[in-house]
């Protein structure tokens, strides 16, 4: 059960009627609905639209016009609002990839293929002689009177662009880009591009987002409206471009241009001193009280120093003090490089995120730094697998060598691993169940869980990212998803015994050229985000329950300040 190659089916073009409401009604017929893997991916695609655009989706009630997602042959959709009583978006066999699903939904929302632009001849050449007979209409231009570019530049990286040899009758190119560096990049199906997002928001005359809340890379001196204060630490939080003891560059640019980050030094002061950095107030609006905080941190202090992440919830607008809750804590050995980190939040009322650096009882020559903060009303991926020097490992390790992740756990206790197969110019990614601490109490086989493996595009702004992912869904009829103690192979790993099942995945996940083309490697580091979700309710429903937040044991610091910061105190940014 994994994503493989796909077949493109002709999309019918129509520009007479445009759906201009940012709330889209969706329906999935229980008989003709896509399979379990595709259904869960469709919900993921909806979340991507909610994060990046002003478009929201809801189950159809009694509306005349709605999007009907069905498992018809192939991947197809009309363009724009076209028919009453269920406009079909087909997500058929081998269409269950995020980028393909986004592509078809964007047709339904009103976007044509990028290579159909009336000005496309300035950017590409169509090789008509190589196109299969009868399919030339897929390459016709849409006239200027029937379409608009919204003055957006031609987007070679659009998820709406054909690949170089689509509909070829002889495996030769059907499209040649006038800028040669894009010849092998057209046709990407990672996810919608920033220009795709711009055009969609222009089409619906909006520029907001359903789930995005905040981004800050500290480029501007106002530090995104944050407040900061201190108790005892000599300097508190400062906006700087390099710090004594590290880091020596921000994470956003990694020294390519002048950038800034926030730093709180623990090199002076007494044990228990602290510095507080507080975001502006934000209000959750979605039904599920779930938020995901993502940021990068650099730890150059002592192993007893702490970076505590709090939320402060307020009863109402008149409440100035709020209720402070500790959500996560970073401590231990210094990292001496930028680390990606996620914190699941569960604010149900207006809230602030608070970053507190707490000085420990050991000597320090540095402190804590943070950069590239993103906050959204969405679920955090469950686990992070970081691989340093990934390109060097890929190109210099013996062909078909394997890297294995640590044993990870799903929220309901299943143990699994992710494996990368290094093949010099490209690599594969695989998922397998392994023996774990909870196996004797779990239900077997492991039924209808979807493993989601994302290689993070480390663009600083979450709405600009174009990450790569695959999914593997555990079908109970496959023995590979039964108890590893019963059906798995016993191996030795790090001196311990482990039972492992057969692995499922893709032989070619990304090529070396592809990972170089975006921010998949930042400072040479690859970041994989791993999630294993129970999707069993999709057998009978079209939605998933609100995510459950993991419980973690966190030690509250002694004598902590309950705040909040006084905006007039120590708020000058360096």
TrEMBL record:
SUPFAM superfamilies attached to this UniProt entry: Concanavalin A-like lectins/glucanases, Metalloproteases ('zincins'), catalytic domain, TRAF domain-like
Its EC number(s): 3.4.24.-
Domain annotation Peptidase M12A: ranges: 7-207
Cofactor note as given: Binds 1 zinc ion per subunit.
Protein residues bound to Zn(2+): 103, 107, 113
CDD domains named among the record's database cross-references: MAM, ZnMc_astacin_like
InterPro entries the record matches: Astacin-like_dom, ConA-like_dom_sf, MAM_dom, MATH/TRAF_dom, MetalloPept_cat_dom_sf, Peptidase_M12A, Peptidase_Metallo, TRAF-like
Signal peptide: none
Active site: 104
Superkingdom of this protein's organism: Eukaryota
Pfam families per the UniProt record, alphabetical: Astacin, MAM, MATH_2
Keywords assigned by UniProt, alphabetized: Hydrolase, Metal-binding, Metalloprotease, Protease, Zinc
UniProt domain MAM: residue ranges: 214-382
Example GO BP: proteolysis
Needed co-factor(s): Zn(2+)
GO molecular function: metalloendopeptidase activity; zinc ion binding
GO cellular component, one term: membrane
Protein name in the entry: Metalloendopeptidase
The organism of origin for this protein: Sparus aurata
